[in-house]
Structures are given as C-alpha cells and as structure tokens.
Amino acid sequence: MVGLEVPQEFLDLCFDIAKKFHNYPTINTSSKSDFISDDSPPASPEDADVDPDATTYYHGLPSKPTLVFRTGPPSEKLTGPETYLVKREIRPVFDDKFAAAWEDVGTRVYQYLDSATVKWTTIDIVRFAEPGKHVGPIVLWVGVRPGSLSRKFAQVAALACENILLSFQIVGVEIAFRESVFRRFGPRLLNYVATANPTASVCSPLTAALGLRIASVFTPYAEGTGALYLSTDCHSETVYVLTARHVVLPPKDIQNKLYHRTQNSQRRIEIMLLGPMAFQGVLTSAMVKIADDTIMVNYYQNQLDVLKNREESGDTDGVEAERAVVEPRLREAEASIKAINKFHSDVTKVWSQENHRVIGHVLYAPPITVGAGSKRYTEDWALIELDCNKIGWANFKGNVIDLGTEITPGKFTSMMDPDPTAPSSFNYPYDRLFPIQGVVPDDELARPRMHDANGEPCLLLIKNGAATGTTIGRGTGIKSFVRDYSLDGTEQTSMEFAILGNDRTAAFSARGDSGAVIVDGKGRVAALLTGGSGLTESTDITYGTPFEWLLERIKAKFPNAHLYPSMA
User: Where is this region: Disordered (predicted)?
Assistant: First the structure.
C-alpha cells in the first residue's frame, strides 16, 4: 500500500492473524497451570438419570454448566416455532438475616456433603433472573466435580440440605447442583499513552499501569496478574508488586512452604512482564489492528473515489461536506497503521528475549493457607521486589488501573451507574488511568451503600486482568464456601468473596487473571482475585480474598506496609 511503509508479506500475515482472531475473539493468554487445579474427571455419562434440562437450564452463563438436579417448580416448556433457550443471569444476594446465619448453615451443609461423600467444589448463594421477569428466589447453588454425582443422589442430598435450612428456620430457598470446577487462577516499561494515541489499544500491557501481565522465568507457563504496588517502609524507596503466590510459585512445581529471600546469595526467582503467551498476545493484537486499519483505509479511499466521480459528473451536492469528514478519517487510519507497525517492530526487537522483560524477583511468599484465621479466608499472596531501573520514575503514576479502550467512556460510566436517579460516585478519568486509594471495609462488602434502579443493594467492581482485560462485575453479599482438592490428595475448605459478571458483560475473569486487584467505583481496593468456578474455561463465579483482611496478614510480617500512592 502506497505511503504506509508496511511490507506486503507482513501485511498478508496480519490479515491471516486477523481472520483467526475475529473468528475466535477470545485469545487465551494463560496456561491451564495458572490456577491450583485438580485433574477434572470425565464428563457425566449419558444415562436415564440425567436431568431433562441438564444442558440447557444454565444457558446464558459463561461456562454453561451442566445441571444435575434442582428443587423448585419445573422450568417452563416452550413448543412450536417460538421455542428458544431461556438466557439466565446470575444475580447477587444481600440479605442480612440470611447472612447472619450463613456461616453456621453453610458449615452444616458442607459437613453433610462430606459425610455423604459428595465431591463438592463450591457452595454459593445466588439468585437467577430471566429477561423480562422478576429475579428468582435465593438458591443454594452447589458445584460438584464433573461426573461425580448422579441426579438420583443429588435429589437425596438436596432434601437433606433443605432440612438443614429448616432447622435454622430458613424457608423458600431452592437447592441446585451443577457440575463445576474450582481453579485457583530489559528495557524500561513504556510510558502511558493518551487514548488519542494510535497505540493506546495495544501498548498498555507494556506500561506500569495495573493489570500487569506477569510470570516467573522458571515457570513461564503459569501466567497471572500483578495486583498492586506496595511500600513496606516510609523511608525506603523500594517498591513491591503484590500478587497471588500460586502465580509466581505454582504448587505443582514448588513446595508450599515459606519463601523469603533474605540474602543476595540466595537464588533469585525472577519475574518477567508478559509470559510467552501474553507476549505473543501483544504482537497478535498489534497485527490485528494493522489489518483492521488497512481495511478502513481501503474503505475511506473508495469513498473518496466515489465522491471524485460524483464531482466529475457534475453531482456536487454535499460532496465537500462528505469529503471533509472522510479525509481526516483516512489520515487517522493511515497514521495508526504507521504507528502500530513501528510499535510491533520495536517490541519484537527490544522485548522478545525473556531476560529483557524481567522486572524484579520474589521477595516473600508465605505458604498458601486455605481457611486461614477466624474468617477462614484463603491466604495466597506474594511480594515481588521491583527492579527500580525498569521504571521511568518521572512518569510513574503508581497504583492506577488502565481502563482500556474496549469499553467507551460513556458506556463504562453508564455501567458503573446502576441508579440514574442517584449521584454517581464514579468518574471516568481523562487519561483512562483510574487511581486506587483506600480499602473497602469487609462490612461494606456485605452491606454496600450503593443501590440499583430497583432499590436493591449493589456493589459494582472493576478489575484489569492478564486474560480478560478490564471487566465490570457485581459483588455478592454472602461469602461462598470453596473446596480445594490439592495435588497431594488433601481437601481444604475456605470462605471466599464472590463476584459475578455484570448483566451486560461476559465472565468477570478467566484463567490468567489470578492476582488481579478488584476495586470499587471510588477506587478502593475490595479484594485480590484468587480463582473462579465453572464447567469450562469460562468462569461463572470469580472468587477473591477481601483486601482489608489480607492487608492485616501482610502487616503481620511488614508492619508498615501500605499502598504506594497513586499520582494520577
């Protein structure tokens, strides 16, 4: 193409990759070893004991889990030409009376399931909604390992769960079992760029904005996300990155015991920005953008040719006005191709070697503890000491999340404003860099101050992760019970803060997002993302450790630990 300085061979390759990208829009930038995971049993065999709605009841959920059994009225059967699959959405539950009894109730439930040898994975409290209908009743939603529970036995277990609820004077709660797996998800960094910059949509993973795509040099297949920048001493210039331990010290390869690098003679566990798949993802996104922009250049050029022909034939009505619109768009697309081609070339030359992408090393990582402390949360964290030479400190803005370019500012603001009649607490930053400051109290996770348009409690949350980028979700007020089947065969139970996908988005997270920070609309830290549950690679429910509690655990070792200030 004349004037664009893009070799035709490279442009052809961009088009090939763009075709694959648009056919398969979700690129998995992490490996299956990212989360703590067990080898899932094979799918349930087909037999007469399968629920008639097994594969259709949860249509609309990201992982489309298989229904094993549910109580409550039978689903409506549609026949004739109007037959279609009902698209269900998960909704959070905020109920003070239920929440007050839930820890005791949930403990009784999982103890019964254990006694009945049910291989459960998660116990969640949710509601479901169908389009155009009121939200349904509270559901005690039990995930079980695929192929491990028959419909007949699930029916018996559901009755036992109902009796447990009745013993606490809790009625009107439905019980449902579904198949689901829990998974425990060189050069300086580039400067942040404005949204108007042609490379804005592709360069963020190489900047210091949160949502850092990281991996250990020794276990590069286990890719995850850096959560926050922390300081541990007011008088020290050292900056640390907080992440989940299982991201940088995968239990599959590294013994689950305390790691603390106290001497320079100790072997460094180096951490790089962008594991192999994440790095390839950056190059792929650049090539897709070049191909897309090339299509637009041809489109605008064809428009100008048509306008020229009209002008030559004497039809000049509106030609100048249309040309005034099209020509700047053509120049913008051409400039974008040129800028992104240079970006791709520079990244390939400078960042391809993994040792050039090392940004620091693991300083401290306590062993992963499931059900830690009186609140029984999961303790799964590590501190990475950042190489100060990798940061351009003159431009470093600290704890800011790049909100990305996928969701426009207008749509993002609308999604974060569930009640148009009330003042919004969310302000979209002019440079997309959302500053983080403060912590959401644990009590507010259960009793949010925000309400949606229906007057229901609502807690909207934001994260930017290595796998799914920036997403918006809803916290739920009642903690989930999670069963972790470790590689050595032991079973451990914890309570987790659950996050659901927003009504207008897909899953909140996926493999590779482990370690990401989750914040509210005021920029306060709510939780550290540690895992998710679902039947497939997609995630129906995301789990995180409440940050107020986690910060206390960090301060037990580093008493002066605090969020590095944001400077946005």
Answer: 32-51
